[in-house]
Structure formats: C-alpha cells, structure tokens
Design a protein that fits this description.
21 strands; Tachylectin-2, Chain A; globular; 329 residues; four-stranded antiparallel beta sheet
Amino acid sequence: MKVKILNEKSIPDMPWESKPAGCNDVIWRYSQNPVIKRNHIPTSNSIFNSAVVAFEGGFAGVFRVDDRSRSMSLHAGFSKDGLHWDIAHERIKFKTDIPEMADFQYGYDPRVCFIEDRYYVTWCNSYKYKPTIGIAYTYDFKEFTQLENAYLPFNRNGVMFPRKIGGNYMMASRPSDSGHTPFGDIYISQSPDMIYWGKHRHVMSPSASWESTKIGAGPIPIETDRGWLMFYHGVLTSCNGFVYSFSAALLDIDEPWRVLKRGKEYLLSPQELYECAGDVPNVTFPCANLVDKDTGRIAIYYGCADTHTGVCFTTVDDVIDYLEFNSQV
C-alpha cells in the first residue's frame, strides 16, 4: 500500500470481494447486489441512500426507509458481516430538548461519522416542510439525541469530516431549493460547537459532462497522507431526466475547500438493472464507505434507483492512482 491512511481503524472482517478477472474499472460491484432490497422489512417501500459504520466487532447503520405511505424516515440497524442486516421496523425517535425540532423528526439520506467519542448522524431534515441538515448523536445506535439544525433551508447532503480541522468541526453540504434541485455546488462550513455554523467556503462546482447539472458530497471523507479522499455524486440531465453517477476528489488536509485532484470521469454510473429501474431510475448515490486501515480496502454503500442498497469495492491506492492521471485540476 503506497498511500498512508490516517484516522481509520483496522476492519479485517469488512465486506470484500476481489476485482473480477478482466475488470479494468477502478470500482467494481458486489456480485450479490443489491444487499438490501426494497421490501427488507414489512413497513418498507424502499431502503436506500443509507449510512454504515464499523461498530463493536460488527456493523451498525442508519437507513433511509420510505414506507408504504411514502413517508421518509430513518431507521437503525445492525449486522455481523455488513451484508446481512437486521433493520428496526420502527423509525428512530430522536430525543431533544428543542421544541422546534420535536415535530419534524423525519427525513432522508443520512450519513454517520464517528468523532471523538460518539457517532454523529447528519441527514436531510424537513424543518417546517423545507429541507435542511439535521444533526444528532448516538453512542449505541439505540438512543439518538437531536441537536439544532445546521443551516437555514434549503440544504442537502450534509457530510461531516471525522475530526476537527483547525479547531473546528467541518461539514460539506449542498445549498439547494425546495424542489428537486436542478443545480448545486459543494460548500464546506465550520463550527466550534456543532451548533453555530459559519466560515462557509466554496469547494467545487459542476464541471465535466457526467456531473454538469449538480454535485454533492457522498460518504465521510477518508484522511490520507495525500489529502482527504472524498467520493461525491454528480448529476447530468438527459432527455429522460437526471442521471446520478459518482467519482472522487482529493482535498487539502488543512484547508479541505482546496481541491487538489478531481476525477475527469465517473467511477460508477447506473448500468445494472437494479440501478436503472426503480422508483427513481438511473441513480447510483453513495452515502457510506468502510475503510480498512491495514489493506486500504474500501466498501462503498450506495443507493440504487432510490429503491435498493448496493455495495461496491475499490482501494485507496486504486482511487488515488486514478486521480493522479485523470484529474480535472
């Protein structure tokens, strides 16, 4: 392994499948996808765009579950191997001392980030029925305490960095509008206390054809000796609507709004039937990555057509090698 991985754990039992013979892609799919199907629990219409972390010798996660009334909510789940999941049938009921938060405890597209001594959950929260970024924390994935929302509406894709930088917490996000946003850049905001967010910095805008409509941060960034490795999704507008693919970027360690490398091409796009056909066709949307510090292996969890959850694989070395010779910057 050429790249040194920082601030990650050894996860020897994480999901992994070697690259298929003859495959030249940087990222390859798990052969048994989707790992979580839309009807995984009795209440679900679909389960997708969800977050997974290593936890107590196994794995835990927060899952987007759209139920059969088509309400969007977050559910907790546990797994021994990261592939077979026991997901709660009931949504997470956040504890909060903030009256304004109590009536709006549902939302979608969570990320989970371990910082210091707890797991922070960020998600697209519906405050007064307008999207913004909710924040909560948990120690055990059984009880969750909700904090103040990070931003004013409208915002989506809130993704924390796994440690303070320059004394502040950092979060990437994508300011948006109230609808199915036809635009979007990635920004980074800073906070001394997880309550007040400011010092907003622009990171990057849509650029290449595959991401020409909008972009947004994906899983929690991976700290390496080369910079922060961040997967992000990009959207193009075709004659049949949006197409969601994803690639990677490398950000400066101390000033992560500075982009060092950025993929010219997508690394995964909707091509398999379970990614092309579903409630929202043509979507591959990454929300989580497991990283093994010892081997550099990465397992990425991604939403498939807003219906199922899939897994794909790569390594830190493979992605950074790709960026070295295929960067927009």
